[in-house]
Amino acid sequence: MKIFKNYTFKRIIVLLLLLTLFVIFSAISYVSAVSRDIANSVFRLHVIANSDKEEDQILKLKVRDSLLSYMNDLTKNCSSKQEVIQIAKEHEEDFKQIAENTIIENGFSYPVSIEIGDTDFPTKTYGDISLPAGTYDALKVKIGEANGKNWWCVMFPPLCFIDVSSGIVPDESKEEIKENLNDEEYDLISKTDNSQINFKFKLIEFFQNLRLGQN
Fold first, then answer.
1. pLDDT at 189 over 90
2. SS3 189
3. What is the pLDDT of residues 6-20, one digit of tens each?
4. Distance of alpha carbon 109 from alpha carbon 111, whole angstroms
5. Which of the two residues, 40 and 96, has the higher pLDDT score?
6. What DSSP element (H or E) covers 158?
7. Alpha carbon of 185 to those of 79, 109, 188, 204, 207: distances in Å?
8. Residue 203 confidence class, pLDDT cut points 50, 70, 90
9. Which of 19, 27, 47, 64 is the most buried (most CB within 10 A)?
10. Which helix (DSSP H) or strand (DSSP E) does residue 160 occupy?
């Protein structure tokens, strides 16, 4: 009888372990698929200041504004992320020159480096759209020693000039994102009043932060 009880107990433990592994594997697979689809729908901007000194942070924002103004002119008729990335690559040297000119015009002489590719982002909210932490295609701009605070936004669809205090993202920007996501994925980044959706968003955020080493 004792042997039977031990055997049953071991079976229960094994089944619980297998169930736990299955749940974890399913969660990771879900997070990976959803994160990939969300990342594939946007192209982001990442500007890093020389330092956290007030003048360097102000300069960072001026460089940002110059780059966004130029990028918006170039991509105003674009309808896909791929188009925007291709244009950004074709004008990479222009971006660098614009950033350098802005820096010089403001009395500094910091060097600038420009990269287009994968960049790790924390969770960020733009009006009523929230993008979970993860790896996204981005235009990364490093000013000087690039030891200052980061500035992030979304270049496509254009969310960089959204007034976050209003809490509203224009419908046309939302439609650009929605075209590349299924209904559940879109709900994940746009609905904050649904407990089930919030739980899934937190699940994605947890696993992505874990992968990025931010926990």
1. no
2. helix
3. 667 777 777 778 777
4. 7
5. 96
6. none
7. 20, 44, 5, 11, 16
8. confident
9. 47
10. none
**How far does the chain reach from its first CA to its final CA, in angstroms?**
47
Q: How far is residue 152 CA from its own chain's centroid?
A: 8
User: What's this model's pTM, rounded to 2 decimal places?
Assistant: 0.77
CA angle 72, 99, 149 (to 5 degrees): 95
Residue type, 189: I
Q: Which two tokens stand for residue 49?
A: 């200041």
- Kindly give the residue spans of alpha helices, DSSP state H, lying in the chain: 2-39, 54-75, 81-90, 92-105, 171-178, 183-190, 195-212
Per the listing, tokens 């990479």 go with 92
Are residues 206 and 214 in contact, defined by beta-carbon separation less than 8 angstroms? Answer: no
Q: Give, in order, the Cα–Cα distances in Å from 136 to each of 97, 139, 186.
A: 24, 10, 17
Interacting residues of 93 by C-beta distance below 8 A, sequence separation 6+: none
Query: Which residue in this structure is represented by tokens 């946007």?
Result: 42
Q: How far apart are CA 184 and CA 38, in angstroms?
A: 11
What are the structure tokens assigned to 141, written together? 């701009």
Q: What is the pLDDT of residue 157?
A: 82
Structure tokens at 126: 């733009």
